[in-house]
Amino acid sequence: MAVRPAAARGGGLTGLHYGLIAFVVVSVASLGGLIFLLTGVKEVTQRAANAERRLERYGTPPAPVGSYYENEASARNASVFAVMGDDLGRMAQLIAGTKDAVRVALDQQAGALMGQIAAGKPGVVSIDDPLLTAIRKLDERLTEEMNANRANQAALAEKEAAIESLTRQLKSVRDQFEQQMGQLKTALGQAQDEFSKRLAEKETQLAELQSTLESREQQLQQFKREGDQEKRELKLQLDRKDSQIVTLQQQVQEQKRGFDAEAILKKADGRILRAIPGSDVVYINLGGRDGIRVGMGFEVYPQLSAPGAPLRGKGSLEVATLMDDTAECRVVRTTPGQPIVEGDIVVNIAYEQNRKPKFVARGDFDLNYDGQIDVDGAERVAALIRQWGGAVVPELDETVDFVVIGVAPRVDEVAPGASEVVRDQAERKKLELSQFRQLIDQARAMYIPVITQNQFLFLTGYAGQTSLRGR
Fold first, then answer.
1. Is the separation of the CB atoms in 431 and 388 below 8 Å?
2. How many CB atoms lie within 10 A of CB 347?
3. Burial code of 92-125, b = ≥16 C-beta within 10 A, e = fewer?
4. Who contacts 378 (Cβ-Cβ below 8 Å, separation ≥6)?
5. Cβ neighbours around 157 below 10 Å, total
6. Which of 124, 211, 274, 283 is the most exposed place for a label (fewest CB within 10 A)?
7. Residues 374-432: pLDDT tens digits?
């Protein structure tokens, strides 16, 4: 049973459509003939013949189509051709937008449109596709495009939100940047003002320095001229001094030829202020302010000593009591027939007011006169020198006042076959003896008094040949 066709959504004309159109046209013509036959008796035969001819020309529609139009015509109470014409008009309206369009025009329009669509949408629609198929494909493609468009719109919305967030951040950063730029501009302006101020100050200072430099340059030139003048004058003075030095050197040489070492050794440190005949107490003009100490010894010499007089004085003293400017001394040794009198001089070569005499001590010493070399003899001599105010230095130079020598180092003969240690000791003794003799020769060449152990003890007030351990 034929059914009513569903309304097409659209699409191009197919061969079936063209056939339907043709069938509709034929059916309409047949219905017209039938009506004509029915309205006129006379013409029935003629119309029948004509109808037969038309039927022969139009043919018979296929069964499903013919049954459909017959049923539709019966349902509408209309002719088959009317139903077919109405359907053809509806199809033309659906396809071309007008009911008057015929198949040829529809075919041309459909072909042109399909060509444009196939060219514009390659791979989507083919020019041979039916209209409904083309519409379906385009609808599917449109659906895909719309879905993609919605996805793109969602992504675009996300991007726009991100852009908006970035815009807000950018605005915040720009505001901070503009604020910082404002602060920097303010700081730059202040710095420029400060720089200009400092530059002006520096320029002022530079001008002052240049002025000072010019003044200094003038002073320098003046000083240079004065210096040249002083240099010439000093050269003249130097020439005169050189001449005087030569003269003084000649005088020194003459004085050295008449040098008396004993006179230096007997140089007075003080004098006897008071001497009581028959008493062992005398007073000297040296006291605590002069740096002497209790227990310090002095040797006594006559005020005027004859040339060649022995180095040993006529008496020895020991300081017993100190006052500020005087000292009470005990007479510890005298020489018969040579009493100590007022005006006699007292001497201790280790003592000198306002300075420390310098000594060099060399050799071996027997301070207790027991015939044996004291192991610590040199140290004890140095201690005596320091005790009475002198200084002991290790090497000889022009500032040394006295050289105290003990016994020369003894060099023993080395027996054949002696050990290496014995030979080394002998070599060391030879070296010490050589240095000892060189020291004496050097001191004499420099006119520095060289005194023996006994002479040193005499000149520091040592009374006799008793042990020095208690001193």
1. no
2. 20
3. beebbeeeebebeebeebbeeebeebbeeeeeeb
4. 361, 362, 363, 364, 365, 406
5. 10
6. 211
7. 889 889 999 999 988 899 999 999 999 999 999 888 888 888 888 888 888 888 989 98
